[in-house]
Amino acid sequence: MSRTDTYVVVGAGQAGGRAAEAIRGAGFSGRLVVVGAERVRPYERPPLSKQVLTGAAAPDTAFLRAPDYYDEHGIELMLNQRVEAIDRGSARLTLAGGETLAYDKLLLATGSRVRRLALPGSELAGIHYLRDLDDSLTIAKALRAGARVVIVGGGYIGLEVAAAARKRGCAVTVLEAGDGLMRRQVAEEVGDWYADLHRRHGVEIVTGANVEAFEGGSRVQAVRLADGTAYPADLAVVGVGILPNVELAADAGLEVDDGIVVDACGRTSDPAIFAAGDVTRHPNPILGRRVRLESWQNAQNQAVAAGRTMAGEETPYAQVPWFWSDQYDVNLQMVGLPDRVDRLVRRGDPEGGAFTLFYLKDGRIVGANAVNSAKDIAPTRKFIETGAKPDPDMLSDPETSLKKVLKAAG
Ligand SMILES: Cc1cc2nc3c(=O)[nH]c(=O)nc-3n(C[C@H](O)[C@H](O)[C@H](O)COP(=O)(O)OP(=O)(O)OC[C@H]3O[C@@H](n4cnc5c(N)ncnc54)[C@H](O)[C@@H]3O)c2cc1C
């Protein structure tokens, strides 16, 4: 690395922002440019479906850094600019306006975009998706007391929007195609517990709901299912998953496999190009397999590892995946990424509103869903890292501390 080198980060989201900070923090003294398609400086997305929607926090609390930070650290933010192509032969990027930008090293943090429904009526006004700050502000404005909100998708985004909409006095219906809520993210028992929670808060939950069309003149007025049932709507919010923005990398001939393939330090198949965040498929040595994660933790810490490595400090990324969701006054935390499980052990009392469900495989904890039980997360992570085998009876007894269970497991 020399003082005249140029490092470019594509994507000014959480991963892009944190990677740039890490590159500087590791001592890179050349030119550092972050190119981002959005109009604002890097921010975190979790508040967009929570505090920003309910009005509990101002949108600017989501920003990673104060505006001056970037000038002070010599980080050039090129906002409202989309990178259209990477020419690896000449080490140049082409921006949407036709301008080019040379790089010595490049980091791709292009994140994800929402999966859009292509159904009759999909183009009607009043149908929203939630990915960026502007989406969140638009939805927040539309959540007026008494408005009928139909949410398509019973995953964590849809359910966080449902909780915020109830808080704002809207009438809320959640239409979920599967047979339960958050089936991709949590155990059935936990998803069912959340269905009860939402029903207690007045949300209508419809599972097995096959959405066939949006109806209305110029604005959405109803969401219709394949069985003909129509749910009246003043607005609809669709949360049916995301797709990684891999096209830039794929078109440049980098290895892509449902995510840009990187090593533990964030290197792609081209040693001058790194990637971090939602867009990567990376090895996780604790899980023993490659994963693509859609989470705050990964956007934060993998980006730091890749940024440092790019600046010359080899930093492998190895953490137990962790994720959370806040709905009403209930905090859900998920740790681990269990693929196969042969036993579930419950600790705590679902009726009392606080419990943890542990996933076990061959006697070892491979993951957990903790409902209002954040204190269980750190010890669970230890169990997963060490592969210690807990005594299931001790594990299920809330009177026995997890520290003690861990110690007994040796
Ligand atoms: C509403 C919401 C709530 C969430 N809540 C939680 C939560 O509670 N807990 C949790 O763990 N995770 C949560 N997440 C997930 C977490 O926010 C994401 O995993 C994280 O934002 C990923 O960061 P990223 O920087 O990799 O990608 P992104 O945040 O997607 O950022 C990528 C950026 O790159 C830009 N970009 C893409 N292509 C180009 C291009 N060609 N040129 C220039 N710029 C480009 C995009 O415009 C975007 O700004 C939530 C996500 C959302 C949307």
Automatic annotation (TrEMBL):
Domain Reductase C-terminal: 322-406
Listed InterPro entries: FAD-oxidoreductase/Apoptosis, FAD/NAD-bd_sf, FAD/NAD-binding_dom, FAD/NAD-linked_Rdtase_dimer_sf, Reductase_C
Pfam families given in the database record: Pyr_redox_2, Reductase_C
Chain segments carrying region Disordered: 387-410
Chain ranges of the FAD/NAD(P)-binding domain: 7-303
GO cellular component, one term: cytoplasm
Protein's name according to its UniProt entry: Pyridine nucleotide-disulfide oxidoreductase
Protein species of origin: Ferruginivarius sediminum
Highest classification ranks of the organism: Bacteria, Pseudomonadati, Pseudomonadota, Alphaproteobacteria, Rhodospirillales
